[in-house]
Specification:
With about 325 residues, this protein is mostly helical. It is built from 15 helices and 3 strands. Strands 1-2-3 form a 3-stranded antiparallel sheet, covered by helices on one side. The protein is globular, with a radius of gyration of 20 Å.
Length: about 325
């Protein structure tokens, strides 16, 4: 840390102790107006920046371990590279790893939360009731087992809102998660998505922008960009919606929903040919997509959903 006048410059580094490998570094320049507020701000920035980088390193470490030496944590890490792609194929790869983690460590909240996410993805794509029930079951188990795990609570709230349509419980779980860790990007992403779907745009934007500010290079930022796209479309800020949806599709081009919001923004901007191209991309990634099926699997507030549905229909996506 260095100080000059009323400014302070702090450099933070994360080094792996065993190997000396440099994992992450960042520099922070701030005014010293309130030293305690400054300490809190830098702490949150560092935690938010380190977590995704550490997650990547840990996933790489787990994939190098011999299969017979894997513990429950390693299995969850191995599954994580498949968990968040939102494809049925990757969900099918992740689920056996996560179930094995539960066999090794029954009641493991992280495994239950990841299973909830995987089954939610399968339900969205195939509308099988058994997948919806499994998603809700594992979300509820994650809550029971992970009362102090902000990530598990955030994911559980997301699934309970979308698949069980219990928004009251979901919002309560987000509040608990962010009380435990107000810089947990998973909880911020998930709460932003649910809040935007409910039409609570101001709170949704606060959560999404906070997640992006805390961890600007996280792969999972496509979730907050989707939340921003929904909020901006709902409030007719169509150019901002286009920019958010473009960022989302860039970060996760295999996720059809990213292209879905981009198509709606392009329709709103009068760029109809580009919108139809994005609609074709949605159908290429999810051939069974219909507007009605999407509505059934996410439970978006009608005032938010109906204008989106009009834009998607104009882009050429099927209604039923």
């Amino acid at each position: 840390m260095r100080k000059a006048g009323n400014r302070v410059r702090l450099t933070a580094q994360l080094i792996e102790a065993d190997t000396g490998v440099h994992l992450w570094a960042e520099r922070y320049d701030r005014l010293i107006e309130d030293i305690f507020a400054l300490q809190d701000e830098i702490t949150m920035s560092i935690v938010g920046a380190i977590e995704p980088n550490l997650r990547k390193v840990e996933i790489t470490r787990a994939t190098r371990k011999r299969p017979e030496s894997l513990d429950a944590y390693d299995l969850v890490l191995r599954a994580m590279q498949f968990t968040h792609s939102h494809t049925a194929e990757d969900a099918d790869r992740a689920i056996p790893l996560l179930k094995k983690a539960l066999q090794l460590e029954p009641g493991y909240a992280a495994s239950h939360a990841s299973l909830a996410w995987c089954y939610h993805s399968r339900f969205r794509l195939a509308l099988r009731e058994e997948d919806r029930r499994a998603a809700i079951y594992h979300a509820r188990e994650a809550v029971s087992a992970g009362a102090d795990d902000a990530t598990a609570l955030g994911i559980a709230g997301f699934v309970i809102s979308l698949d069980e349509h219990d928004h009251t419980t979901a919002l309560s779980l987000f509040d608990r998660a962010l009380t435990l860790s107000n810089c947990n990007t998973f909880a911020l992403h998930c709460s932003a998505l649910v809040l935007s779907s409910m039409g609570k745009t101001k709170r949704a934007e606060e959560c999404a922008q906070r997640a992006l500010r805390l961890s600007p290079f996280d792969f999972l930022n496509y979730l907050s960009f989707n939340a921003l796209a929904i909020s901006y479309l709902h409030t007719n800020r169509n150019q901002e919606a286009y920019e958010a949806a473009s960022n989302s599709a860039r970060l996760n081009p295999r996720f059809s929903i990213c292209h879905l919001f981009l198509a709606a923004a392009l329709v709103r901007l009068g760029r109809n040919e580009e919108a139809r191209s994005e609609a074709r991309e949605v159908l290429a990634l999810d051939p069974t997509f219909t507007i009605d099926r999407f509505s059934a699997t996410v439970g978006i507030e009608p005032a938010v959903f109906l204008p989106l549905a009009e834009a998607w229909h104009a882009a050429g996506l099927p209604k039923t």
